[in-house]
Design goal:
It is a single chain. This protein is mainly β and 186 residues long. It has a single domain, classed as Jelly Rolls. 9% of the residues lie in helices and 31% in strands. It contains 2 helices and 11 strands, in the order E-E-E-E-H-E-E-E-E-E-E-E-H. The strands form 3 sheets. A 6-stranded antiparallel sheet has the order 2-3-9-6-11-5, covered by helices on one side. The protein has a 3-stranded antiparallel sheet with strand order 8-7-10, with no helix packed on it. The protein has a two-stranded antiparallel ribbon with strand order 1-4. A hairpin with an 8-residue loop joins strand 7 and strand 8. It holds the Pfam family Cupin_2. This is Cupin type-2 domain-containing protein.
Length: 186
């Protein structure tokens, strides 16, 4: 059985939150590559409080920029990735997420729901603060050809990993919209 077709919000109607988040402690956030955290509000249109995870995966695969790798919630401990950028597509539920580290005065606390997409640059700390309805689920994806994602927590031992973030390339096309999407224009 083929997955349900998705409807995308037209780019001219898409609300995009762009946020630079300063480094805090040993969490580099957007300071290394100067690429903002992006949240596409309601990029995928579904029914009610759910967007088909299979349909999200199929859409992302057809655009061809990222490879979907998992379906899960977000960890409740602040972490970041030093080896790759991450695309989080919310498939079910609502949640409050924290980007940048909860002690960081420059953090972003964001309310997300099914249909939203978050482009998390390598180095940006993120964690689940509250699963509002229970059952919060995302499709996690990474750029094709990227190294396997890692888990970093802002410890002294990770300083070498943080420096390598400078070497990561950015998106030549938007992972959701292709040629014209918001990730291309940052």
């Amino acid at each position: 059985m083929s997955p349900a077709r998705l409807s995308l919000t037209p780019l001219k109607e898409l609300e995009v939150i762009k946020r630079q988040i300063p480094a805090h402690g040993l969490i580099p956030n957007t300071s290394i590559q100067n690429k903002p955290l992006l949240i596409y509000k309601g990029a995928f249109r579904g029914s009610g409080n759910t967007v088909s995870a299979s349909a999200i995966e199929s859409h992302l695969s057809s655009v061809g920029i990222v490879s979907p790798q998992w379906r899960y919630t977000m960890y409740s401990t602040t972490h970041f990735h030093s080896t790759t950028h991450e695309i989080l597509c919310i498939a079910e539920g609502r949640a409050k997420l924290c980007f940048g580290g909860e002690q960081n005065p420059g953090r972003l606390d964001a309310d997300v729901k099914a249909g939203d997409v978050v482009v998390v640059p390598a180095g940006v700390g993120h964690r689940l603060m509250t699963d509002v309805d229970g059952g919060f689920e995302m499709v996690g994806s990474y750029p094709r050809g990227a190294k396997s994602w890692d888990m970093c927590y802002g410890t002294e031992e990770e300083k070498g990993k943080i420096e390598r973030i400078k070497e990561l390339g950015w998106f030549g096309k938007d992972p959701v919209y292709g040629e014209e999407g918001p990730a291309v224009n940052v």
